[in-house]
Amino acid sequence: MNPMTKEKAAALNRDLQVAIASIAGRHGMLIRSCVLSYGPTFVRIRAEIAGALDDDSPIADSAAVDFDNHAARIGLGHVARGEPVKLSDGRTYTVIGFKPRAKARPVIVERDGKQYMVPVAEIAAATRGGASGPGVGGVA
After folding, report:
1. Do residues 39 and 49 lie in contact, with contact meaning Cβ atoms separated by under 8 Å?
2. In this predicted model, what pLDDT tens digit does every residue of 22-71 receive, in sequence order?
């Protein structure tokens, strides 16, 4: 067997994404991500595929579901997913999800098609009238 190279892995990843998207489409589902990792003698594939209940319902990703499930526990029960919030940098973002494993910046917000991770305290401060608290790291 020939060892796996970066070029072979990239070509394999492209082909797998096309194949998995085709299969998911036949079943009325959508591929969220397909990640390939490799070593000299193996290839590991991880795909996240989500499905809709019908043609009108949006496909929920795991971060959106996690926000709905954890919002009350983290002190953001008063914030609805999709709600616009004005953060301490003066810009308005839309709350779109939550990553439970991200301890420092677990809330996902979006602005102009870009996603940013922010602390819970930032969202809490913005939605309770005062935009005090830690700044939004990495937000330009």
Report:
1. no
2. 887 787 777 766 778 888 888 888 877 776 544 444 545 788 888 989 99
Measured CA to CA, the distance from residue 102 to residue 105 in angstroms comes to: 6
For residues 123 and 67, give the distance between their C-alpha atoms in angstroms, rounded to a whole number: 13
Question: Is the distance from CB of 41 to CB of 79 less than 8 angstroms?
Answer: no
Tokens of 134: 């830690």
Render 48-108 in DSSP notation, one character per residue. EEEE-SSTTSPPPPHHHHHHHHHTTTTT-TTPPTT-EEE-TTS-EEEEEEE-TT-SSS-EE
Query: Tell me, what DSSP letter sits at residue 25?
Result: H
* Whole-structure pTM value: 0.55
35 HSE (CA, 13 A, CB side): 5
In angstroms, rounded to a whole number, what is the distance separating the alpha carbons of residues 77 and 99? 16
CB 42 within 8 A of CB 76: no
Q: How far apart are CA 109 and CA 80, in angstroms?
A: 12
State the sign of the Cα–Cα–Cα–Cα dihedral 77, 104, 46, 109: positive
